[in-house]
Amino acid sequence: MEYININNKEYKLVIGNGNDDKYRNSFNTLTEKNFGFNFEKWYQDGYWKKQYIPYSLMDGDDVVSNVSVNIMDLEIFGKIKRYIQLGTVMTDVNYRKQGLLRAIMDRVILDWKDKGDLLYLFANNSVLNFYQRFGFSEVKQYQCAKLISNNGKLGVAQKLNMSDEGDRTLVYNKANIITPFSKIYMCGNAELIMFYCTMFMSNNIYYIKDHDAVVIANFVEDTMEILDIFCEKEVSIDLVLRYFTDENIKKVKLYFTPKDTSSYIEIPLVGEDTLFVLGEDKMLLKNNQFMFPELSHT
């Protein structure tokens, strides 16, 4: 058992895997307090695996602060890389401003800085200065968008039911197929995709039988937002659009960077969480216009 002394008080450090029910329940309780959701369904569905590693400080039986490590194998501009994404950064309200997160961050950076090409995270505007203290640098992201014309629908996009085991299996299997539409995409992390598909995006999953493709999309007023596309044979995004567009849809926004951006406007992301990076691939990202896929965020 490992303990960390902070301001003359000892906290137990737990590097968790979710299998300890008592620990997981406390971890979920803190997550619910901070973010309004928890990981229990994700765990019970069998998707919490070795890529997601919480580093938690416990006061007695209670998780009071946490930073989670996410092992991300990604193709970055044509090369396979191992990046380490930090997420689920949280502290119980009664334990804030006491140095708990700093202690966890120091340990995480020590453990992981030499195990990948980059450490990175997404931070909200209230904590930007915090991450700079550890050597993280801000990198701008760019979103692709364009106006679209109604050329007539090609067929039906069937909405999937994520409460149905068969539909969940279909999505999981497609998410495991590497047919990249993006300049940056995840390799072999369908479990993270399922976190979104079974929770926040459960009403936004479609299947195009003509192309055996799963499309994750949202519709806001006259705009179609495409989060991702999964299929064995690559099809054009414009072709996918023709299974959805009608007279009400005038624009499309992509929440990933497509291979071919020539027909899109690349807009700097504003009002979103800020990307911070630390490591040898920092300049590679700073020298390119891109967006980490939305469904790769942890």
Automatic annotation (TrEMBL):
The keyword Amino-acid biosynthesis does not apply. InterPro entries: Acyl_CoA_acyltransferase (IPR016181), GNAT_dom (IPR000182). It comes from the Bacteria. Residues 13-161 form the N-acetyltransferase domain. Coiled coil: none annotated. Keywords: Transferase. The keyword Magnesium does not apply. GO terms for molecular function: acyltransferase activity, transferring groups other than amino-acyl groups. This is GNAT family acetyltransferase. It comes from Clostridium saccharoperbutylacetonicum N1-4(HMT). The lineage of its organism: Bacteria, Bacillati, Bacillota, Clostridia, Eubacteriales.
